[in-house]
């Protein structure tokens, strides 16, 4: 028999008279000595013999059911003997194998992986799916190998506190995802009691108070002032590379990186009277109406896209690459694990090659600020653009709240066409069309040049 320590002796002293008080005081397993435990499960207080498999097997904790308190009332001495006998056999490698013996308790990591395999594919886009998995696996390492029925509030606090004030949005998402995983474990009778990751004031106080508001820790996305955009676009046009063209295109499109980088040929209609790009709503962080989003394309953006497509066709052959902005692996675009260009690639190019202390997302702020500075003809106070149309250009949720959103079915396409063309004309002013006066002036200049050349030739002779 194993040696009984002082703590075990205290557990052995517990009697049936202590059951109700202990259940009220603890939300986890309650030890009664000899491997006998009591817990609330499925609305009833249940007895279990708890043992751990040997390390050479799998080392998992196993809970062997022995009945409810009501069923085994007055049998505490017998229950201890049964539990001790089961645990002694388990130490010798003779594990109970009947179906009623219960299931091995998985670790948090094992149950989280199983839960994510089932739940994550239901999320609407791959970006959300990847973020869900990475946030849990990266931030829950300290509890990853701990049995899921032994995750307590102290464990949740240990996971969240290091990131609570520094990356509050991520911390809030991790907490919510831990809550979902632990709730699922309770639904599978793998744990009991309150969910320690449930958002409460007590948890907030233990974490040091409310987290900083979104954006307070990193500040707003740095942006290129809108009046400097034309010069930047000229510089980008001089760079004959994909990343420079991608930056030019994302500036003109006003969309987020995750929506932009996945652009495909099948989404583009460049030959229409009004060229457009139809973005599937699954790719959006926030989709205005859960329907494909049509981006009207200005002539300048069409020109950038045609230039990019022409280069892809030259490198890979006509129509051999579906993505307009393919990724780069070992210098070969379109191959490997990254099918599309990374937003970090564009950010690094902007900061290092273009020497701009700004972010790619900041171009959306540049556009929004520019619209605030545009006024109706003859006015210096009346905005030129409808504020709702500006929000739709940025693919924000429909303004006006849930009620207005439920009634508004369109996304102000005609108004957006005008805004996108004006924005493109600001970023890349079109070359002035040749006029009769211009032609006359050009001819006069040409004749003057010829006269100068003849004079010089005559003097040389």
Describe the structure.
The protein has 461 residues and is an alpha+beta fold. It has 4 domains: 6-105, no CATH class; 108-206, Tyrosine recombinase, N-terminal domain (DNA polymerase, domain 1, Orthogonal Bundle), CATH 1.10.150; 226-427, hpI Integrase, Chain A; 436-461. Helices cover 46% and strands 9% of the residues. The protein contains 18 helices and 10 strands. A 5-stranded antiparallel beta sheet has the order 1-2-3-4-5. A 3-stranded antiparallel beta sheet has the order 6-7-8. It is elongated, with a radius of gyration of 33 Å. The N and C termini lie far apart (122 Å).
Summarize the model shown.
The chain is of the alpha+beta class. The protein has 18 helices and ten strands. It folds into four domains: 6-105, no CATH class; 108-206, Tyrosine recombinase, N-terminal domain (DNA polymerase, domain 1); 226-427, hpI Integrase, Chain A (Orthogonal Bundle); 436-461.
How many beta-strand segments?
A: 10
Please state the average pLDDT score: 83
What structural class do the secondary elements suggest? alpha+beta
The total number of structural domains is 4
| Count of DSSP-assigned helices | 18
Distance between the termini: 122 Å
Strand content: 5-15%
Q: The CATH topology of the largest domain, please? A: hpI Integrase, Chain A
Give helix % range: 40-55%
Described by strand count, sense and barrel closure, the largest sheet is: 5 strands, antiparallel
> C-alpha Rg, in Å?
33 Å
How would the global form be characterised?
elongated
Compressed to H and E, one letter per element, the order equals: HHEEEEHEHHHHHHHHEEEHEEHHHHHH
